[in-house]
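Whiteboard transcription, Tuesday session. T.W. wrote the structure tokens on the left side:
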């Protein structure tokens, strides 16, 4: 079957070749190659394209519209080559099948070849792997041998290096022993030494060897327990290196002095390289301490007396401590800037010369603070004795404290500047504090003593000023009939402001000197307590002086009280004196109210100072803030106690004048007008107008001076006293109905005035007084209903109804007997 197909295929013309499928295969190209020989003849039989356009319908997409049946009959077959194409396609399919079989056969052969080659390759890889494993084993053995050889070589090298080091050490030791024997030959003999120790070009080497020999010799002596007593004892010693130690000590001292001399010479010439070389060699002697100290001590600012005098002149000038703290502060600032600049220049030299520059800077800064700064502080700060304070006219303790504060602040700024320049391990801050330790020990006591001294001086000045004013205005003595308001020193808020200003300055110094919160709180609390004592004492004394004026005025009033049976001339003189006493009382009243007002302002000033400045410094310490608040409350309560006493005296003064005006101005006819047919007078009585005018004038200052509870309690007490005084006054008169109307008008006037007190209890009492006045107005038969309708007036009304001029004639007692029985 296969052979027949092959024969049939062989008989067919060859259409496809396997080469057609190699490379870049394209089906479109293969198909075109198959049909190109047939399709061109078909395209030529299509006819002229123009005719086709005329006879056929063309669709918009380029395809031809199918012809109608009539057209088909006329045109004939549409695709006459279809049979040839079908035959071509069938033959092509057969050839494709045959080509696939050929390819399959080739692939089978290739698979077999690949399998054979893969087996060979695997065999070769196995052999190679076996050979590689052998090579790895060989390399491992080789590496082990190499490592062993390397370790052996390293050991040999270490031994060689150790041997070389030992040889070098042995050589150096031999040299050192030789040098040591030279130094140990005879005491004090340094002439037979090797040239090394006298060669200036090998000074560094000589210094190093000398130090090694000295260390060795001293250790040897220490091991044998032999002490070097003297050169003679060393010479007589049978063994040991005592002679060597003594000679080495002498040589080192001589060498060190020689190097220091060379260093000084180079320093004068500013030869920094030579200075650095000498400093490096000298560092082998006691770590170079002698060179460092020698350099610092040789600075001009430590040895030149003129520099010290210039410092004092710059800060104090020609006036000494009296030059003023501002000038001293400026002088210290200038001096400390100069010192800082000098240290900065020295720092540049030190950094270039000394190996241990920080150590030299530490010595320099310490010397600056302990010598130059201390010298000027000793001139500035002369600590006064608390038992013998300096006089105020020379500045007092305050001058010392201000200078102390300025010096402390400026010196701390200097310490910070020096710290920036570099001070090594030196505690600059601690050293600065030590400069002021003597002054800070008793600082709180000095601060409090200064505040008390200022207070005493202020009080003396105020007393002297008051005395001068009194002498100027000719203050009358107490034996006269008047009291001058200027006879006593008045309270001044300005003075309290001075107290607060002093205390604020003192607290600022407390803040400056106290670094620990607990210490600061204790110092601030003690200083603030001084302020509380001063303000309390000053205000209390001022209030007492104002009360003395009230007492003197009261004494004048009592002195000129006269009886009824006196001559008209004596009565006129007494009335004039009483007027003068009343004027003195009113003036004293005003003075005390002004004093109270100033007390309130002063206390508010202290409280504000406490809130703004003191409180925040006390809060970090438990209990400090509350304790100060309690102390402040105690001080204020003392002042309030004096105020309360004075206000009661003020009320006595006011009521005394009210009683005087009522007794002199109130006429019997004011409330018992004659029945002359004239219209009744509905104006307040003259006495009422005088009393209300006096009260308005006197209390005008009270309304301004008092506030809060003080004002309320004062006005309430005054209103109550006025109410009782009027009741007692009216009981001296009898009333007819028109007089009752006049009385009601007076009560209305008094009520309108006391309504300004804003005291409801007093308003109610005067309202009841107005109602009670109706007992003089209503008809006798209406009195019972009046009392029954207004129970609040029953008690006083039953007394006042007896003052009716018709009380007996109208038998009013029997008419109100039932009301009287109920009460």
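and on the right, the sequence the group agreed on:
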């Amino acid at each position: 079957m296969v052979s027949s197909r092959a024969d049939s295929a062989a008989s067919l013309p060859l259409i496809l070749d396997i080469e057609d499928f190699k490379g870049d295969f394209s089906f479109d190209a293969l198909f075109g190659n198959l049909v190109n020989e047939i399709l061109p003849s078909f395209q030529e039989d299509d006819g002229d394209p123009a005719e086709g356009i005329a006879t056929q319908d063309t669709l918009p997409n380029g395809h031809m519209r199918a012809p109608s049946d009539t057209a088909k009959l006329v045109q004939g077959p549409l695709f006459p080559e279809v049979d040839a194409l079908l035959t071509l396609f069938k033959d092509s399919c057969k050839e494709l099948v045959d080509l696939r079989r050929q390819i399959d056969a080739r692939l089978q052969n290739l698979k077999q070849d690949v399998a054979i080659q893969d087996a060979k390759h695997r065999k070769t890889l196995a052999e190679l792997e076996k050979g590689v494993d052998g090579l790895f084993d060989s390399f491992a053995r080789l590496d082990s041998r190499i490592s062993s050889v390397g370790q052996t070589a390293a050991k040999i090298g270490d031994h060689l290096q150790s041997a070389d080091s030992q040889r070098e050490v042995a050589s150096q030791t031999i040299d050192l022993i030789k040098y040591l024997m030279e130094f140990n030959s005879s005491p004090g003999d340094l002439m037979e030494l090797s040239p090394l120790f006298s060669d200036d070009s090998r000074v560094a080497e000589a210094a190093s060897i000398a130090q090694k020999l000295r260390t060795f010799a001293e250790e040897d002596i220490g091991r044998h327990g032999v002490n070097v007593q003297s050169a003679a004892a060393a010479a007589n010693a049978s063994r040991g290196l005592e002679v060597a130690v003594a000679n080495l000590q002498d040589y080192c001292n001589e060498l060190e002095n020689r190097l220091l001399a060379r260093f000084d010479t180079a320093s004068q010439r500013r030869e920094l390289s030579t200075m650095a070389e000498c400093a490096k060699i000298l560092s082998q002697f006691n770590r170079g301490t002698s060179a460092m100290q020698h350099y610092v001590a040789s600075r001009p600012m430590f040895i030149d007396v003129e520099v010290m005098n210039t410092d004092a002149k710059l800060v104090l000038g020609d006036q000494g401590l009296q030059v003023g703290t501002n000038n001293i502060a400026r002088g210290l600032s200038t001096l400390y800037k100069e010192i800082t600049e000098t240290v900065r220049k020295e720092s540049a030299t030190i950094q270039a010369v000394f190996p241990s520059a920080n150590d030299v800077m530490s010595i320099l800064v310490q010397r600056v603070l302990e010598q130059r700064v201390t010298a000027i502080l000793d001139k500035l700060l002369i600590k006064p004795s608390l038992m013998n304070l300096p006089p105020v006219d020379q500045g007092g303790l305050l001058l010392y404290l201000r200078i102390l504060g300025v010096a402390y602040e400026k010196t701390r700024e200097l310490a910070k500047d020096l710290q920036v320049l570099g001070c090594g391990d030196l505690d600059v801050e601690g050293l600065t504090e030590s400069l002021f330790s003597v002054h800070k020990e008793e600082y709180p006591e000095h601060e409090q003593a200064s505040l008390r001294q200022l207070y005493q001086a202020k009080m003396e000045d105020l007393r002297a000023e008051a005395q001068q004013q009194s002498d100027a205005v000719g203050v009358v003595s107490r034996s006269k009939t008047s009291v001058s308001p200027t006879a006593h020193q008045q309270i001044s808020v300005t003075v309290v402001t001075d107290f607060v200003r002093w205390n604020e300055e003192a607290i600022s110094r407390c803040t400056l000197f106290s670094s620990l919160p607990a210490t600061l709180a204790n110092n601030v609390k003690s200083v603030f307590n001084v302020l509380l004592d001063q303000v309390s004492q000053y205000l209390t004394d001022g209030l007492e002086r104002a009360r003395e004026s009230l007492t003197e005025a009261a004494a004048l009033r009592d002195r000129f009280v006269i009886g009824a049976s006196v001559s008209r001339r004596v009565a006129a003189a007494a009335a004039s004196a009483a007027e003068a006493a009343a004027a003195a009382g009113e003036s004293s009243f005003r003075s005390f109210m002004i004093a109270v007002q100033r007390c309130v302002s002063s206390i508010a000033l202290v409280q504000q100072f406490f809130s703004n400045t003191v409180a925040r410094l006390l809060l970090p310490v438990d209990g400090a803030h509350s304790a100060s608040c309690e102390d402040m409350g105690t001080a204020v309560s003392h002042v309030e106690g004096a105020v309360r006493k004075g206000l009661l005296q003020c009320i006595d003064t006011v009521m005394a004048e009210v009683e005087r005006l009522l007794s002199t101005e109130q006429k019997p006819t004011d409330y018992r007008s004659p029945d002359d047919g004239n219209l009744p007078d509905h104006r307040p009585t003259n006495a009422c107008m005088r009393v209300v005018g006096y009260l308005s004038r006197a209390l005008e200052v009270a309304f301004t001076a008092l506030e809060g509870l003080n004002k309320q309690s004062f006005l309430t007490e005054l209103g109550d006293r006025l109410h009782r005084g009027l009741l007692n006054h009216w009981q001296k008169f009898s009333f007819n109905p028109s007089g009752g109307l006049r009385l009601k008008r007076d009560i209305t006037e008094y009520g309108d005035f006391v309504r300004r007190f804003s005291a409801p209890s007093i308003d109610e009492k005067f309202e009841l007084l107005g109602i009670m006045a109706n007992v003089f107005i209503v008809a006798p038969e209406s009195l019972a209903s009046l009392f029954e309708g207004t129970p609040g007036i029953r008690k006083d009304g039953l007394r006042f109804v007896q003052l009716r001029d018709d009380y007996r004639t109208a038998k009013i007692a029997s008419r109100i007997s039932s009301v009287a029985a109920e009460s």
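Someone added at the bottom: Confidence is low (pLDDT under 50) at residues 1-12, 42-75, 226-239, 475-487.
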